Amino acid sequence: MTDDKCGCVEDFSDSSIHVDVKEYYGRVLKATSDLKSNACVAPASPLPAFIRQALGKVHPEVISRYYGCGLVVPESLEGCRVLDLGSGSGRDCYMLSQLVGDKGHVTGIDMTQDQLEVAKKYLDYHMKEFSYKTPNISFVQGYIEALAEAGLQKDSFDIIISNCVVNLSPDKKRVLAEAYSILKDGGELYFSDVYCNGRLTNEIKNHKVLWGECIGGALWWKDLVHLAEEVGFSYPRLVTASTITVGNKELQDILGDFRFVSATYRLFKLPKGSSNPCRVIYNGGIMGVEDCFPFDCQYTFKAEEVTEVDGDLAKILSSSRFAEDFTFEPSGRGLCGVKAKESLVDPFELVLQLEKQNPGSTTRGCCSTQSASCCK
Question: Helices in 122-217 by DSSP H: which ranges?
């Protein structure tokens, strides 16, 4: 993590990368058609009805000025305090505003003034559209590497989401450390991003267009695992992964043999110490996954069915907002004789597995949304 005792927001404004990104998303891009690659093209996979309905209430200009890819919608959001890292024009924030309800709250943080102006312009419009007497959403200008300096309090959020934004930061470890700091105990960082199969060359990292297109700043997926551990998060739980095609010969020639995927991970802020494997029963009823809850790429919970889980997942479920959604059955000795699954965290391996199951299904733009159809 950067050794910066001041930690002032102004320090980040001097970063050439931040200046370039603000220019790219604030002035160069005017619509998604201005993107130079396919990396940030939203997937064609169908969205759950409740998400489609929520997006249908978002103002058209907010939609048109949004340059993220796909959707990042974790489960069990009602009443939660949610932070969106790199919220842009506010599309995801306004969609999540409806899902957390009038007792929850959504905060969007972005460093690009042009984008924030669009988001704030329609605040009253959306509150009226959602029939909220009091706004449950706010927007903050700041850097995702400096959440505390932007006025966000420690231990104050239940969930943090990020949609293809972490790759745009030159200091990913600091982003993760700041996220960890402001999450409540049991809180979750649920985020999608672009990852590569190795550490990128300086030529690629210094290419302004590739960085702005969410490719030049992509992490080697193994580095994410190490950074998450160093910061204090739980071992990453891989949710989905899909291959990214660039679709631009000039850019592809620069990238050479590097391969890229979009992947969604769950990271939790958990109490220290180990936990024993046990048996859990999903009680059902979470909106959108009422009967079948695909928690990650290895564990899918069907309502009222007993599932054996490893100690890591048992600790996540019992320490997070999902605790009331599950019934836990420890054995008399505190062990259930469950052999922990070997965690699948490599998104490229997951893509290979999914491709074998359904050829042609894993090539798309960044940050796809998994639906409960995987349970069928």
Answer: 123-129, 172-182, 202-205, 208-212
Burial class (CB in 10 A: 0-12, 13-18, 19+), 318: middle
Write b or e for each residue in 107-136: b if 16 or more Cβ atoms lie within 10 A of its Cβ, otherwise e: bbbbbbebbbebbbebbeebbeebeeeeeb
- pLDDT tens for residues 31-40? 554 554 555 5
Start-end of H helices in 24-73:
49-55, 60-64
Identify the segments of the chain with pLDDT beneath 50: 1-10, 14, 26-27, 29-30, 33, 36, 44, 332-336, 367-376
Q: What is the CA radius of gyration of the chain?
A: 20
Residue 356 to residue 265: CA distance in whole angstroms? 22
- Do the beta carbons of residue 211 and residue 217 sit within 8 Å? yes
Burial class (CB in 10 A: 0-12, 13-18, 19+), 302: middle
Of 147, 196, 189, the residue nearest 167 (C-alpha)? 196
**Which residues are bridge partners to 137 per DSSP?**
106
pTM of the model: 0.87
Reference 141, options 26, 288, 259; nearest CA is 26
3-state helix, strand, coil in the chain (%, to 5): 35, 20, 45
